Amino acid sequence: MSRSKVGFPANSLKSINDSQLRANLRSATGAIREKRARVVGEKEDWEKLRRRGEEIRKETLNYLDKYLSQLEFSVERLGGTVHWAGDAREANEIILSLIRSHGENEVIKVKSLTTDEIAMNDFLSENGVTAYETDLAELIVQLAHDKPSHILVPAIHMNRSEIKELFEKTIAKGRRLSDNPVELAETSRLYLRQKFLSTKIAVSGVNFAVADTGTLCVVESEGNGRMCLTLPKVLISVMGIEKVLPRLDDLSVFLELLPRSSTGERMNPYTSLWSGVHDGDGPEEFHLVILDNGRSKVLADPVGRQALRCIRCSACLNVCPVYERSGGHSYDSVYPGPIGAILSPQLFGNESSLSLPWASSLCGACYEVCPVRINIPQVLVHLREKVIAEGHKSSVENASFMLLAGLFKSPPAFGALLRLVAKARRPLNRLSLSGFLPGYLGKWGASRDLPELPSEAFRTWSKRHG
Amino acid sequence: MTRTVSLFVSCFNDVIYPRTARAAQRVLERLGVKLDFPADQTCCGQIHINTGYGSMAVPLVRHFVDVFSNSEEIVSISGSCTATIREHYQELAERTRDPELVKRTDELIPKVHEFSQYLTDVLGVVDVGASYPHKVCYHPTCHSLRSLHVYDSALVLLRAVRGLELVELPHAEQCCGFGGTFAVKNAPMSTAILVDKVSNIFASGAETVVALDNSCLTHIYGFLKRNKTGISTMHLAELLDQGANGSEV
Predict the structure, then answer these.
(1) Whole-angstrom distance, CA of residue A312 vs CA of residue A116
(2) pLDDT of res. A349
(3) Which chain A residues in 391-450 lie under 8 Å from chain B, judged by CB atoms?
(4) Is it the case that residue A31 has pLDDT exceeding 50?
(5) Strand partners, A271
(6) Which residue in chain A is spatially nearest to B50 when comparing CA positions?
């Protein structure tokens, strides 16, 4: 199957021509991009911090087994319970049985990509449990029966008048609203407070889990996460195996790198740290579900594994020229943007994996801003080669590249080709102006003229002038 | 002291832009550099590597090393080809498990210089004696900016050109959307990115767009010409050859 008919090229075409989406994304990514550049620019030791972040994440992944068993020991010593889940199904069943064991049919959620990855909400709903999103943007996406389109700003594809209309139809119960952000936030606050006070079980994600102390960390902007983490009786936190950090000290590096890279703030408004359970303070029960779901397979790839260093800051999305014009939905994954283009194919290996590694001009803006120095272009090129080596390629393209490589290996043949091209330049130049071009040339020619061929190649000229 | 430098022109410059190669040759020769053109050079392998055919590029790495390993210094007029050599050659050479090739590749990589960087950092030149009385904007191509970290060299050289008015290109560091086969595999996306680059070029008021890579310039000019904008593009080497004694007009 030709890659251009399915996957990213086809998905993104719709977004490219959606003027509302393009305007929303242009203004939102532009604003975050500028804020990030400003707060990163004021840190003189930013490069040192990035390198330290990279080192810690590398060390973690190199000794992941050690740090994970240390984490399990630390969490259980403080009264938490650790559950291991090999895949999405196992994780969902663990979560469902915990909810059922308390006889509940509702949970509240703080934004968690990992639970989106395992499609927890759908699984719970099929089994009679309703999960209420409490992060404002996640709530918006949930009320709209939509999907998140950005790691950090899940409703980035919507603007405030779209949100006003949505709230009027849902949580405002027919009341008329203005598109004033304060009024919209107040509407969601009134709705969410009730949920916080009446729901007994919360499900959260995890930003970092510290192996030596068993400390869990969630960073957020709204404080709704803090309510989820502290008010309910039972807290279930879900994390991928790669979210562990060796030492409590390491947090100081990431609490600098993450907010500056993600929201462009010096510090995020709410940083919640907790360990185990404490009498009369916070949840009475704490469960930590640690999920593999393809991660150890990624770890086995020496080039691809750097994707697991990711701390989900989304700086790469905000600077990516492709993401800015495609939006998150085109990536067909909970992990969109440049990081999604290298993570999703490695984790999920579905239909989109065949086109995602090519969803980039390899401009390198992502690598430049990544706080843990993931060389995204390098991994993209690596995955392209992997997809082709697995046999997913067009036979015409493959044959053309073989022919080209053959010519490049043989200077006389290459020279002869160049002389032939120069000889045939008049008909070739006329053909390119005609607009009837085959294959890739036609795709180029749809919006761009082809360059005019000169009367002789440089090597021919050079030979004449000795 | 006369330096002997080998010129690596890149396959697409060889066939489509011999004028850039000739201009680079003249500029360097005027500065007293003795140039040679190893006639067996072909392609660095970039198109194969970036499209996912890295294994087919391994023999091309060996070929490149064979052709250039006797050169003292190599000047390349393509930022992205220079970046390909710096970023991929080591790994591709290692795939052959031939320690001799790995060693020769390692020795070769630091000898390959991008054209503008060679002028400012190796030769220490600022003014090459060119004149070009027009409004010009500089598009820092992604590979020269983010892989080679070349930015100032071109600006320093452009500022010294007589009569040239260097105008600011808004959001200059953003990609033009070319990306090799990206331009055809994701053609509408590539065009969407290009359109924004071109609107920034309009906003700059430039008559000519200058860059260190003819591949990106082919992309940009393809659109400028298709839409009859009357704005031209020029590789830095050609611009530095303008108005100088002995230049080809």
Answers:
(1) 14
(2) 86
(3) 393, 397-398, 401-402, 404-405, 407-409, 411, 414, 418, 421-422, 440, 443-444, 446-450
(4) yes
(5) A219
(6) A381
Sorted by where each starts, the structural domains of chain A and their CATH numbers stand as 8-30+306-389 (1.10.1060), 46-293 (3.40.50.10420), 407-464 (no CATH)
CB contact under 8 A, B142 and A453: no
Cα Rg, chain B, nearest whole Å:
18
CA dihedral A103, A107, A113, A114 (to 10 degrees): -10
Q: Tokens 């590398």 map to which residue?
A: A58
At B54, is the pLDDT very low, low, confident or very high (cuts 50, 70, 90)?
very high
Tell the burial category of A245 from Cβ atoms under 10 Å away from its Cβ (0-12, 13-18, 19+): buried
C-alpha distances in angstroms, B30 versus B233, B238, B249?
23, 14, 16
pTM of the model: 0.95
Whether A27 and chain B come into contact, CB under 8 Å, resolves to no
With a pLDDT cut of 70, the percent of chain A lying above it is 98
Find, in chain B, the residue whose alpha carbon is nearest to that of A358.
B182
Residue A252 in contact with residue A56, Cβ under 8 Å? no
Task: Please state the ipTM of this predicted complex.
Answer: 0.96
Q: What is the mean pLDDT of residues A338-354?
A: 94
Give the tens place of pLDDT for each residue, A385-421: 999 999 998 999 999 999 999 999 999 999 999 999 9
> Using an 8 Å Cβ cutoff, are B49 and B83 in contact?
no
User: Distance from A454 to chain B by nearest Cα, in Å?
Assistant: 6
Is there a contact between B175 and A361 if contact means CB atoms under 8 Å apart? yes
**Chain A residues close to B84, C-beta within 8 Å:** none
Structure tokens at A288: 């930590």
Q: What is the pLDDT of residues A75-104, one digit of tens each?
A: 999 999 999 999 999 999 999 999 999 999
A78 contact B CB<8A: no
Indicate whether A4 pLDDT > 50: no
Q: Do B182 and A358 touch (CB under 8 A)?
A: yes
* A106 beta partners: A130
The nearest CA of chain A is from the CA of B229 a distance in Å of 13
Confidence band of A145 (pLDDT split at 50, 70, 90): very high
Phi, psi dihedral angles at A245 (to 5 degrees):
-125, 145
Query: What's the rounded Cα separation, in Å, for the pair B140 and B148?
Result: 11
The predicted pLDDT at position B246 comes to 57
How many angstroms separate the first and last alpha carbons of chain B?
Answer: 30
Domains detected in chain B: 4-122 (1.20.1050), 135-240 (3.40.50)
